[in-house]
Amino acid sequence: MGFGTVSRGGSSRWPDQRLCTVEMGPPCHTSCLSRRKSSSSPKIKVDLDSSTGIAVMKFQSPPVNSLSLDFLTEFCISLEKLEMDRSCRGVVVTSALPKIFSAGLDIMEMYGKSPERCGEFWKAVQEMWLKLYGSNMVTIAAINGSSPAGGCLMALTCDYRIMAENPRYGIGLNETQLGIVAPFWFKDTMVNTVGHRTTELALELGLLYSAPDALRLAWWTSWCRRTRC
Ligand SMILES: CCCCCCCCCCC/C=C/C(=O)SCCNC(=O)CCNC(=O)[C@H](O)C(C)(C)COP(=O)(O)OP(=O)(O)OC[C@H]1O[C@@H](n2cnc3c(N)ncnc32)[C@H](O)[C@@H]1OP(=O)(O)O
To answer: How many CA atoms lie within 13 A of 69 on its CB side?
Structure first.
């Protein structure tokens, strides 16, 4: 898989060349197996291959990988651990569930909760964004399913995006369709990737894009024809 250039950088872990290639090669032989580190929390599984420096973080929170307080907390802890592991240079975030990358913020977290709990949840959403956006590692979203609203934010916050091509999968900040205004920093993250005009239209109409449509609008430089990638 090949990826395009980005405007961010400044970390020693970024490759010298601005064009970065990630090889997802055949299964390793025995000597390589010892270089693999796995860790699993209830909602997130992480596999780090120290020989390549690439970690794969898989979301495993059925039914839809919604971003609950628990999920976000586990996500931040997993990212921090990788951040502290000097053998890790890049992380691929993806889903272990069929058809869904992430359904976005957990709606149940925003209903009938105490002000304290709401505050804690909202802080965790912001923390996820800050940690992912500010990561020293190369971050890649392998979007193997639908990714509305907060799921889209997470993908946009990564340095690169690859999406599986399937007409049933949509990605976008569709909050308007839900009667919610996307927070300004959701909007800014989208502007940084696809520009003002596309963002304006997408947010006004609450659009969800298919992989080829999103590619045309420069959401990413690659998409994957397999339904699972
Ligand atoms: C306290 C906060 C203070 C701050 C206040 C400001 C708040 C502003 C927030 C603004 C930003 C908002 C960002 C968001 O991300 S809001 C969430 C937006 N996401 C959605 O609306 C997704 C809706 N879901 C879907 O479109 C589909 O479910 C999906 C395409 C993801 C999957 O479709 P599928 O047909 O496969 O599955 P189902 O629809 O049958 O769903 C299966 C079960 O999953 C539950 N579900 C779905 N989405 C969510 C979700 N986001 N949170 C929690 N639960 C979710 C769904 O209800 C089904 O459950 P049941 O099986 O129990 O019925």
So the answer is: 12
Using CB distances shorter than 6 Å, the residues near ligand 1 are 63-64, 66, 99-100, 103-108, 110, 118, 121-122, 146, 148-150, 175, 178, 180, 182-183
Pairwise pLDDT comparison (60 vs 23), residue with the higher score: 60
Per-residue tokens: 95: 């889903």
Mind giving me the DSSP string for 31-98? HHHTTEEEEE-SSEEEEEETTTTEEEEEE--TTT--B-HHHHHHHHHHHHHHHH-TT--EEEEEESSS
| Count of C-beta atoms within a 10 Å radius of residue 69 | 17
Would you name the residues annotated as active-site residues?
105, 150, 174-175
Residue with tokens 């240079």: 89
Q: What is the pLDDT of residues 70-82, one digit of tens each?
A: 999 999 999 999 9
- Range 138-151 average pLDDT: 98
Instruction: Specify the pTM.
Output: 0.87
Phi then psi dihedrals of residue 191, to 5 deg: -55, -40
